[in-house]
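Q: Please design a sequence for this.
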């Protein structure tokens, strides 16, 4: 199956992971060879607003997609942490770009891949 993009990037807090997140991920998998899921608020302490750690949310994604039982899919989905930078959008954007570039290199892209930013239409 030919994909429109090399990589699709989905940024979400996933506190908790829900069916809407999974629908976006499924759509991204249809559109791109690789899906990068950047999990926001990754270094934030547990609070009522952020009850789960990054590792717990990463495991939720992996379990919901069945990555432990599907090696082909596991090679296409990449989950990485994304920290918050209060009042510093340029640092946050730089972190997003650096993380995507690092993952593209680790995946094996030697040229600049085609990248799509995916999410819910309200975002």
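A: Design:
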């Amino acid at each position: 199956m030919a994909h429109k993009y090399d990589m699709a990037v989905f940024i979400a807090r996933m506190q908790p992971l829900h069916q809407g997140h999974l629908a976006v991920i499924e759509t991204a998998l249809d559109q791109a060879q690789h899906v990068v899921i950047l999990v926001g608020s990754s270094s934030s302490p547990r609070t009522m607003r952020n009850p789960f750690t990054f590792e717990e949310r990463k495991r939720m994604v992996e379990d919901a997609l069945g990555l432990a039982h599907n090696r082909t899919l596991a090679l296409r989905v990449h989950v990485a942490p994304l920290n918050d930078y209060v009042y510093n959008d340029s640092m946050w954007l730089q972190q997003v770009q650096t993380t995507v570039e690092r993952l593209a290199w680790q995946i094996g892209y030697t040229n600049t891949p085609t990248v799509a930013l995916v999410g819910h239409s309200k975002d």
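Q: Thanks. Anything notable?
A: The longest strand covers residues 5-12. The radius of gyration is 14 Å.
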